[in-house]
Amino acid sequence: MNGLDWGAFALNLLWAAAAVLAVMLVTFAVAVRLGVHRVVDIAWGAAFGVVAVVTFVASAGDGNLGRRVLVTALTVVWGLRLAVHIARRGHGDGEDPRYEALLAKAPGNRDLYALRVVYLLQGALVLLVSLPVQAAQYVPADMTAFAWAGTALWAVGLFFEAVGDAQLARFKADPANRGRIMDRGLWRYTRHPNYFGDFCVWWGLFLIACDSGAAALVSVVSPLVMTFLLVRGSGKPLLERHMSERPGYAEYVARTSGFFPWPPRRRV
Questions:
Q1: 260 is a domain residue
Q2: Domain of 114?
Q3: Is a pLDDT exceeding 90 seen at residue 8?
């Protein structure tokens, strides 16, 4: 396997880990000051942008400049959009019920428990999931069709995430929709347009790293882990369990694709 400076890449992992740890510790301090740990969700997207920028600086002279600029820009745009969206969505709200339920099980100090099982765990996931963003920047080869296909898939993902989130926010803002199920726009074709978009974004970033077999091999775990989290882990299953008691949701599930966009079934 060639096309990747393993020594430089290993050193970059240390720089990225230090950057992610700094983001999570600062976020933890802010959360303790505010008394709510939901702010860690804002740090999730921002941390990926920080990793991309740190890697861009560290990889100077090692990788292809065009690929480095491309993967950094795509990651920062995705991360900042997500962070801003989550910040706006949760503005003025109290603690997230998920964290309330989790911290209720804390054997001792709630904040220190949150640091271990929320912040440090999410930081480790950021480091793991960001492997394509890091590896791609150390590939010296010219960009090929893999990079452009990855960019196109990333764009599809960002569209589904951004448009799906905007449509849902607009739906929730209308008092007439209180208690109703969102089944319009992109939500008519998939029950989770934002999760599908996330899926596309990370497989797209992985494709950009595929101009090197070594980079592809070391980073394929990223989209696989993200896919598992979205489809089988903390994404789709938890949200659908939460929504299952709402009137009309069973009918919505029966006619609407669970993940990949597809025309709704005409008859249930």
A1: no
A2: 6-255
A3: yes
CA angle 59, 61, 63 (to 5 degrees): 65
Residue 136, Cβ density class (10 Å: 0-12 exposed, 13-18 middle, ≥19 buried): buried
CA-CA distance, 137 to 219, in Å (whole number)?
12
164 is a domain residue:
yes
Tokens of 133: 């963003």
Domains in the chain: how many in total?
Answer: 1
Assess contact for 130 and 51: CB atoms under 8 A: yes
Cα within 13 Å of Cα(180), Cβ side: 12
CA angle, 33 then 36 then 42, to 5°: 100
206 falls within a domain = yes
Query: For residues 99 and 38, is the Cβ–Cβ distance under 8 A?
Result: yes
Distances (CA, A) of 225 to 38, 78, 106, 198, 252: 23, 18, 27, 12, 28
- 3-class DSSP state for residue 30? helix
**Per-residue model confidence (pLDDT) at position 267:** 63
Evaluate whether residue 262 is within a structural domain: no
Rounded to 10 degrees, what is the CA torsion of 240, 82, 179, 253? Answer: -30
In this structure, are residues 241 and 200 in contact, taking their beta carbons and an 8 Å threshold?
no
Q: Look up residue 203 and give its two tokens.
A: 């497989």
Poorest-pLDDT segment among 59-68, 106-115, 181-190: 106-115
pTM greater than the 0.90 cutoff: yes
CA distance 219 to 15: 17
Residues 62-81 as b or e (16 or more Cβ within 10 Å = b): bbbeebbebbbebbbebbeb
